[in-house]
Design brief:
two-stranded antiparallel ribbon, 2 strands, PAM2_motif, mRNA regulatory element binding translation repressor activity, translation regulation, cytoplasm, ubl conjugation
């Protein structure tokens, strides 16, 4: 009886075409892919050097991103300042004593009658101790 797995429809395999683990049978050394282990210390030294270079580059990249972010924030802050009207001493402060006196005279102080009304309607205890920050009072 004939084996069904050896049917004539399957392609024939010639032993010279077979490749195992990425190497053909014709290779002189079947362990060629492991030969790097012969110089493992050199390999580790190079790998460590590459890792340090990668970390150094990553650190520089992070610093550049940080600087760019700070620059963007600073630029946004300057744009906000330009949008709003800010206090400018040379423009907003009075220049002469007359101008200062005029501003002082413009201040309105309430008349004494309204102060008396305020005192009469007050809920505050006039006999209460004066509040001093940081001092604890005991109720005795």
């Amino acid at each position: 009886m004939k084996d069904p797995s050896r049917s004539s429809t399957s392609p024939s395999i010639i032993s010279e075409d077979v490749i195992i683990n990425g190497h053909s049978h014709e290779d002189d050394n079947p362990f060629a892919e492991y030969m790097w282990m012969e110089n493992e210390e050199e390999f580790n030294r190079q790998a460590n050097w590459l890792l340090k270079q990668f970390l150094f580059i990553a650190q520089i990249e992070e610093e550049l991103w940080e600087e760019e972010f700070i620059e963007r924030c600073f630029q946004e802050m300057l744009e906000e300042e330009e949008e709003h009207e800010w206090f400018i001493p040379a423009r907003d402060l009075p220049q002469t004593m007359d101008q200062i006196q005029d501003q002082f005279n413009d201040l309105v102080i309430s008349d004494s009658s309204s102060l008396e009304d305020l005192v009469v309607k007050s809920n505050l205890n006039p006999n209460a101790k004066e509040f001093v920050p940081g001092v604890k009072y005991l109720n005795i």
